[in-house]
């Protein structure tokens, strides 16, 4: 099984690219989806997160991580870990092993000629060794900032802080085997996705050529 790790900076368009591969029949194994499954209401992992981080969030932001319906207030947790590297490391030590294990299960179940594993923090967590190829969705940081502010409604300073907490654009590109440029509309992605799809099908048929 050829495993392609899809990554990119925040608001680079990873999900949009993944959907285009999925439309071509490629199984998609998404770390964010695995995370949401593991953090369903009442799950052991979610209760661990509440126990570890809720008091800190209340102290810093005056709100609880636990919503009235028992779900996680993701925006507050995201804010905490982007502002505090120590808290981010603590969260990752809880969640990353569980997410990797869930993705492995989903991968075994999914089959396919090749699979796309969507891993936002692949570069930051040195995850290239767990995939056969690294596909980076790339765009200028100025465009990331624009998309982030349009999506989340935050200030430019908040958007810049989110970017600063991730790997740099050069670091991601240095790890890439393949790159999709996402600087225009979604129609411009289709030829790039289709070309890589053909390439990956060929590589999957010739494992020694990967």
In short:
The protein has 210 residues and is of the alpha/beta class.
Question: Which helices and strands occur, and which strands form pairs?
Answer:
Elements: E1 2-8, H1 14-23, E2 28-30, H2 31-38, H3 44-61, H4 74-83, H5 85-110, E3 114-118, E4 133-138, H6 141-152, H7 156-164, H8 169-175, E5 178-181, H9 189-205
Parallel strand pairs: 1-3, 1-4, 2-3, 4-5
Helix pairs in contact: 2-5, 3-5, 4-5, 6-7
Could you explain how this protein is built, in words?
The chain is of the alpha/beta class and 210 residues long. The chain has 2 domains: 1-27 and 111-210, P-loop containing nucleotide triphosphate hydrolases (Rossmann fold, 3-Layer(aba) Sandwich); 31-110, 3-Layer(aba) Sandwich (Rossmann fold), CATH 3.40.50. The chain has helices at residues 14-23, 31-38, 44-61, 74-83, 85-110, 141-152, 156-164, 169-175, 189-205, and strands at 2-8, 28-30, 114-118, 133-138, 178-181. Helix 3 runs antiparallel to helix 5. The model has no long low-confidence stretch (mean pLDDT 93).
